[in-house]
Amino acid sequence: MMAPVWSRPEAERAGTELLVMLHGYGSSEEKLLPLFGVLPPNVTGVALRGHFDVGGSFGWFLLDPLLAPDVSEVLDSAARVFAWLDPVLAAGDFRGVSLLGFSQGMALATTLLRLRPHGFRAAVGLSGFVLKHELLALSDEPDAAVPFFWGRDVRDGFIHPGAVQYTAAWLQAHTLLTARTYPGMGHRIGRDELRDVGIFLARYLAR
């Protein structure tokens, strides 16, 4: 159930960069549509819907209070995204593909990045986390160094402190990290953060 929403019509996508956008738990693809407004002209955004039913909203896997979900559910969601994405890329319309995830969507985005460390040009993680799991760690490649933007509010109470600590360490070790904090933003996407995401994408996805 990807239910993709695109930032531009199909006839205008050829030759652009693709940005795959993943929402948070108990949300939907519609929550990410404001990000379309900050995409550089050469970037096409597509917001996907998670398959996991959350009482009328959606997620990617069952939410665990300590942010340590069943890894099989995470890998299942990753496989579903790849199954949607691979034919899109095979059509040859896009120059490259990048990732963006909010909250639980950041956990999935970084999992996709770990499974295909050389498959993405850049990634953005907003108010989210990286999953700590031995199986996922086996695929980590220190030399991948994908440009990564990590934005958050340091007082965001939705993300467990242990998860924040692991996320910071993993991103520093495995990506070319740009980290920004936004006091008072809370667990959402703020205006200043939107601006900085646009700047980051323009820098790393320039023609």
From TrEMBL:
Keywords: Hydrolase. The keyword Transmembrane does not apply. GO terms for molecular function: hydrolase activity. InterPro entries: AB_hydrolase_fold, LYPA1-2/EST-like, PLipase/COase/thioEstase. It comes from the Bacteria. Residues 12-202 form the Phospholipase/carboxylesterase/thioesterase domain. The keyword Hydrolase applies. Pfam families: Abhydrolase_2. SUPFAM superfamilies: alpha/beta-Hydrolases. Coiled coil: none annotated. Belongs to the AB hydrolase superfamily. AB hydrolase 2 family. This is Phospholipase.
